[in-house]
Amino acid sequence: MTQIDTHAAPPTHDRDLVPRMMVRAMLALVLTVLTVVTIARVTGQPLIATLPEGKIIIQREIVLSGDMSGAARVHAPDGTLIAVLSPEEGGFISGVYRVLLHERKKTGVAPDAPVLLLQKDTGRLEIHDPSTGWRADLMGFGADNAKAFARLLAQ
């Protein structure tokens, strides 16, 4: 059996955890990006990676409600029930509702105000909250999630 010296000094780390060359390369990358963005903003370069606006071809006002389980209910502004969705069916819609609640709490808007579900001639599907100005392009969340809202337009 060997004895362990409990009075030995702790080991010293002579080597850096991140090589200096890597830190310098990351710093150079950050400075380069900041420089390019600053030049683009100062010279007024147009945004080129934005979605096309398109014209609204179908529009529907809906009132969303949901819970943490993922279940969701969708009503027309007059109270007519459009859809009752289980947690498996309504998870994304319930998630969008929670984002709307968060935005509405920040601005003091009633949680049951209607939102606009928009189909554009570009094929994009969008949800827009006129009371807060919040909007989301639903196609960015995947085809299955966009279809959940597309079914609401069809009903």
Short description:
With 155 residues, the protein is of the alpha+beta class. It has helices at 20-42, 87-107, 143-154; strands at 56-66, 72-75, 81-85, 115-120, 125-128, 135-137.
Q: Report the structural category.
A: alpha+beta
User: Could you estimate the helical fraction of the residues in percent?
Assistant: 25-40%
Question: How confident overall, as mean pLDDT?
Answer: 85
Strands across the major sheet, in which order? 3-2-1-4-5-6
Compute the number of helices.
3
* Model regions low in confidence, pLDDT < 50 over at least 5 residues: none
Percent of residues in beta strands: 15-25%
Count of individual beta strands: 6
State the end-to-end distance: 79 Å
Note the overall shape.
extended
- Secondary-structure element sequence? HEEEHEEEH
Q: Biggest sheet, open or closed, and with what strands and sense? A: 6 strands, antiparallel
**Rg, alpha carbons:** 26 Å
Question: What does this protein look like?
Answer:
The protein has helices spanning 20-42, 87-107, 143-154; strands spanning 56-66, 72-75, 81-85, 115-120, 125-128, 135-137. The chain is α+β, with helices and mostly antiparallel strands and 155 residues long. A six-stranded antiparallel beta sheet has the order 3-2-1-4-5-6. The longest helix has 23 residues, at 20-42. The protein is extended, with a radius of gyration of 26 Å.
